[in-house]
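The data are set out underneath:

___
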Amino acid sequence: MGMRIVSQGDFNKTFKFLHHVRGGKFYKNLDKYAQEGVEALKEYTPVDTGKTRDSWDYIITEEDDVVYITWTNSNINDNVKIAVIIQFGHATPDGHYVEGVDYINPAMQPIFEDIAERAWKDVTSA
C-alpha cells in the first residue's frame, strides 16, 4: 500500500506575497497609524493646562527587520514625566496621594486593534 500526492497550480501568489512583505511596502501606512495614536492619546488625556495633551508625538524605528511605533510625550517637569504620573498616580509634596487615571490603555486599545487589522489587510492584499 502506498501514498500518492497530487499537486496542482503554482506558488506565484505565495512568491508575490513574500516579495511584498520583504519589500516592506506595508510599512507605508505606519505614519498614518502612528498619527491616529497621537490623536487618540490627545483625546483621552485629562486636561488641566493642556500641556500634556499637546505634547504627544511618535517615533518610528526599524531594527533587524522589525518596525516599532513609539508614542512619546515631551511634557517633563523636574525630571518627572507628567503623562506617566497622570496614568499611574503620584505623591504630592505635602504627603497626599493623587490616584492615577487609566487613560492610555483605553485610548490605545482600539488603535492597536485597528492597526493590526489594517496592517494584515495591507500585507495580505499583495
Notes: The first strand starts at residue 56 and ends at 63. Residues 33 and 115 are 6 Å apart (CA to CA). Residues 104-124 form the longest helix (21 residues). The chain has a mean pLDDT of 86.
